[in-house]
Amino acid sequence: MKFRLAILYLLQFAIWGSYLTSLGQFLGSAGLGADISWFYAAVGLVSLVMPALAGYFSDRYVSPHALLSFCHCSAAVLIGDLWGYAQTVTHLTFWPVFIRYVAFLSFYLPTIALANTTSFRLLSQRGEDTLRSFPRVRIWGTVGFVLAMWFVNSFYYHDGSWGFTLTDDNIMSRYRLQYNSGQLLVASILGFITAGYSLSLRIRQTPVRSADDSRKGLMDILGWSRFNLFRNPELRSFLIFAILAGVCLQISNAYVTPYITHFAGLSQYAGNDVASNATMLFSISQISEALCILGVGIALRKRGIKSVLVMAMVAWGLRYASLALGNPGSGLWLLIISMIAYGVAFNYFNIAGAMYVDRMTESTNKGFGQGVLMLMSNGVGATLGMFGAGAVVNYFCHWQQVEVHDAPTRYFMGDWTSVWWIFAVYSLIVALLIFLILPGVGKKRDVHPQD
Fold first, then answer.
1. What is the distance between the terminal CA atoms of the chain, rounded to a whole angstrom?
2. Which 3 state secondary structure label does DSSP give 447?
3. For 360-381, how does the pLDDT look when each residue is reduced to its tens digit (9 = 90+)?
4. Is it the case that residue 223 has pLDDT exceeding 60?
5. pLDDT given for residue 52 in this prediction
6. Half-sphere exposure of 202 (CA within 13 A, CB side)
7. pTM (2 decimals)?
8. What Rg do the C-alpha atoms of the chain give, in angstroms?
9. I need a labelling partner for 241 at 20 to 30 A (CA). Which of 163, 179, 284, 409 fits?
10. Residue in 280, 344, 269 with CA at minimum distance from that of residue 312
11. Which of 321, 297, 317, 318 is nearest to 308 (CA)?
12. Could you give all domains of the chain from N- to C-terminal order, each with its CATH number?
């Protein structure tokens, strides 16, 4: 079963990896660069409702693996439609693209929490210790994410010609999927494959609808009236800080690749292979994530959720500070340090958070608990954070046409150093607040509430 769940996570996150970190480059080249923050804030807007709603239904009505398959199939259809639209128009306009993208997210985002719920339930049914087993399964999601990033970074297709390249010296380099809508087609194909595979992961216990479920109102159906999770003071504090920590992830996903690529528009870095392979460089972040993931359970058991969260936010600060100081030339090592820091920053919040919430919620609310975590971090946090981050980035930086290899290319030019320092300071302030306010340093009850 652990092997089969590993395949699920490989496919699950390959979908995300095929577009998440390169979407900003596609939008910028298509003339929607000033609206990047809206597309990443959409992750937060959708997370306000859909993951909690899906978690509610997986606890009460439908087995999570069946709902997971349905959501993947629907998401694959919708992002495929977005790719088809992009193929039929010469110039993209905001609302047709944005509406289609939000529709896709409405079905894809719940699959992250549903995959967690499916895995925790199947592992528990087989007597596995989820603190030990889940990281070994989840690591394959990172592998899938990286493989998808490498593919869209290197693969090109134009007028029937296709192949792989890593250098701008190849005239076909500008047609690589990291720069165009082909990344959306890859996500759609992977979504259909994942939908079919999810149906094979049968859970023995099907959720049973209780007698009073038919009398529940809209607030109950959406799950908002079931926020008794907040009665637990430690879990309540954690979920509040999840809002502040959730800001950092979408900032990273939205702007790191356009930032790295913008160096190609500077004369001293023209033709630089690092600047032309931003998605590939970003993949070091996911490799670091894979290497760090196995230590999450150990850190939770020995240090508790508070110390783990502090380490995560300090790592975010290091990531942004290294981006502020680095460049593709003599400062390449700083860019690499930034990518490595991501492994701790991501795992020590997202993965540790999912494991912590699973341990702190009752058996009837585990799916809902995962949905609430998504709501707080990728919902409220990401939404507010992306609107704020978008205002900061657009104040200091602007998309410009730059002549590269005798062809005009759009790059996100400006004072990126100030941008990254602002985000670094924010991360360290949140780390300090967690250290001063959140209870439970290194306490065993953080991960074993029954104790």
1. 29
2. coil
3. 777 666 766 776 787 778 778 8
4. no
5. 67
6. 2
7. 0.82
8. 21
9. 284
10. 344
11. 297
12. 2-202+222-446 (1.20.1250.20)
